[in-house]
Amino acid sequence: MNFRYYYTIGKLVLIIVTPILLLLFPAGFFDGGESVCLSKLLLGRDCPACGLTRGCMHLIHFDWEEAYAYNMMSFIALPMVAIVWVQWGIKELKILKAYQKRRAGMAGC
Q1: Residue 62 — pLDDT band, cuts 50, 70, 90?
Q2: What is the mean pLDDT of residues 34-54?
Q3: Contact, 96 vs 12, CB < 8 A?
Q4: Per-residue pLDDT, 108
Q5: What angle do CA 97, 22, 48 make, to 5 degrees?
Q6: What is the pLDDT of residues 77-98, one digit of tens each?
Q7: Gap between the Cα atoms of 95 and 101, Å rounded
Q8: Secondary structure of 33-90 in the HEC alphabet?
Q9: Would the pLDDT of 58 be above 80?
Q10: Which of 88, 79, 104 is nearest to 12 (CA)?
Q11: What integer pLDDT is reported at residue 1 of this predicted model?
Q12: Can you tell me the distance from the alpha carbon of 10 to that of 6, in angstroms, rounded to the nearest whole number?
């Protein structure tokens, strides 16, 4: 039970720290470097998701024009990811509370 308890705590830390880190990085953090898109590397063509990471990063920093220039789908993708992220955090928090209740019940025996 200890492993699952600490694993859940680790996931909650990841859920909380990742958005904070993305806010602390500059908006252009992912703008440079080589593309990792398989479509771009193998076929030499842009896929519909090309620029989505960079667009979302600019969107997080309220750089609307740059986000739209990279990929206009970032205006749909980022809110969807945020909703799923919050739901994941709530689920893990409920699991953590259940573990804490179980541990408190075991300690009282």
Answers
A1: very high
A2: 87
A3: yes
A4: 65
A5: 105
A6: 999 999 999 999 999 999 999 9
A7: 10
A8: CCCCCHHHHHHCCCCCCCCHHHHHHHHHCCCHHHHHHHCCCHHHHHHHHHHHHHHHHH
A9: yes
A10: 88
A11: 60
A12: 6
The label of the residue with tokens 């440079």 reads: 32
Single-letter residue type at 99: Y
Q: Which of 87, 51, 82, 83 is nearest to 69 (CA)?
A: 51
Q: Which residues contact 61 (CB under 8 A, 6 or more apart)?
A: 23, 26, 27
Q: Which two tokens stand for residue 80?
A: 């969807």
Tokens of 81: 């990811």
Extract the tokens encoding 30: 């992912």
- Contact 67/75 with Cβ under 8 angstroms? yes
Residue 109 has pLDDT above 70, yes or no: no
